[in-house]
Amino acid sequence: MGMPICDFVRRYAAENPTRLHMPGHKGKGYLGVEALDITEIDGADDLFAPRGIIAESEENAARLFGARTLYSAGGSTLCIQAMLYLTALSAAESGKTPCILAGRNAHKAFVHAAALLHIAVRWIYPDETQPYYSGKIAAADVAALCDAALPTAVYITTPDYLGNTVDVAAIAAVCHARGVPLLVDNAHGAYLRFLPQSRHPLDLGADMCCDSAHKTLPVLTGGAYLHIADVAPTVFHERAIEAMALFGSSSPSYLILQSLDAANDRLPDFAAALAKFLPRAAALREKLAAAGFETVGDEPLKLTVNARSRGYSGESLAAVLRENRVFPEFYDADFLVLMLSPFDKEVLARIEALLCALPQGTETAALRPPLSHPTAVMQPHEVLFLPTETLPLDACLDRVCGMAVIACPPAVPPVMCGERMDAAVLAQLRYYGVERCTVIR
């Protein structure tokens, strides 16, 4: 397939040029990668006006994903911002005020972008028994809320942080029957395209989605894709680069761009390795189940262990792994999240040896409170410039939240900015260790 960005930068570095341009390290430094870290010199193209090597590389990625694909050196955050801006543009073309019906487990980048763009949000809640990091929603719920809210777009986050996926195809059918585009935060699922049978949102009917390439593919941190389906609204295609440039840095990292470029050449091998790895990952789940551990989610490269099922906390299991120089993606009172890779097959045996050998635990835990459904007093954009104060949790009862209480991973926040903090909200916040909150003054 070729690596046009990588080839250009390597040729340039090999010539040992006199660099009278940015960056200031001039190709020399302590990290060892400075020679490959360049800026938009002649021939290097421009990420937000691609005509040369970046355009060629993005076309290579587009062929792999079967869509219009744009690179991001600002992670999925940049892509989420662009998706919301394009949604607002599409609504304006139709003379509508933008309103997005969104799964409640949205990443905070979605909340921030909606606030900055003055986009109203209506939330789709998962079942109240679901944990904080889950986002399982049903197509029937989306249909009912679509008919009630008449949104200009539907936005879902799948896979969620625990590895659960939703029925994207069914939700896409609901959206398209109503003439509403479906946007998907697929940050944790870029690799789904390369399963033996693709489970990528674009192949299931999404109009637009983002992938954090760096989360599950062999790409440097910060590398991501914005994908636009061929059948998506025309304005999504016409204004996509403009949308990315609106929020993106004018100095994107060429190290990240090279990493995205190089991935195009590696992804066929990745797909082959993935197909061989999946049965081994499934076998590990079976061994953990035989040892008494419940695993959560249906995403094959995310191994989420319900620590409580074996008498442990997620923190305790994480401590066992860390003592043996194994570092998990995430843990809390209930869960341990491990992100697997087909390029690291040996780790499966280590996980089995460390976890399956543990005796039955004796830790007890407080009952996790159900998900709260606080009352919205105002939209996030109405809160953005209001004065706030940060108070101890007990002093926040009946106050209006001034900042989304949400973890960086996509999660269902107990309360969103603009919502009133009732007793149920405070109970959930206490369970997750929150001691202070920001409220409108």
Report on the structure:
This protein is α/β, with parallel strands linked by helices. The chain contains 14 helices and 13 strands. The strands form three sheets. Strands 1-7-6-5-4-2-3 form a seven-stranded mixed β-sheet, with helices on both faces. Strands 8-9-11-10 form a four-stranded antiparallel β-sheet. The radius of gyration is 23 Å and the shape is globular. The N and C termini lie far apart (57 Å). The mean pLDDT is 94.
Q: What are its keywords?
A:
7-stranded mixed β-sheet, alpha/beta, 441 residues, 36% helix
Strand order of the largest sheet: 1-7-6-5-4-2-3
Number of strands: 13
Number of helices: 14
Low-confidence stretches: none
H and E order: HHEHEHEHEHEEHEHHHEEHEEHHEHE
Radius of gyration: 23 Å
Helix amount, in percent? 25-40%
Q: Can you summarize the main beta sheet? A: 7 strands, mixed
Shape: globular
Mean pLDDT: 94
Percentage of residues in strands:
5-15%
SS content category: alpha/beta
